[in-house]
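Hi there,

I know you've been waiting on this one. I reran it after we fixed the sequence typo, so this is the corrected version. Both the input and the resulting structure follow.
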Amino acid sequence: MVGFIGGVLMKAATYEEAFGRVEDLTVRIRYLEDQMAELMERMLAQESWWGAIKVLDQREAVVRAQHVLLNEWNDAMNDLIGFLEPADHEWAYRRFHPSMR
């Protein structure tokens, strides 16, 4: 599996490693998207401003985690693209992009 050394993403040695990394990050990002939707529903259901603000604080942490994972996803996707023929690049982005369910 691809790992980090000194905070820098190591390149995958094989297509399978790169593919697995992108798949894993895609699943994790989609999980955070589901959490975000749940928090939005909870925020809208609050009966006080204080309750809504508390939920917004939780939402901030999810947004920060999403940003980190999206940056990692971009790096992993660039790594995967290096193993593909140019004609397959668009397919890969459509297949894995977190917002494309």
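Quick highlight: The mean pLDDT is 83.

Best,
R. S.
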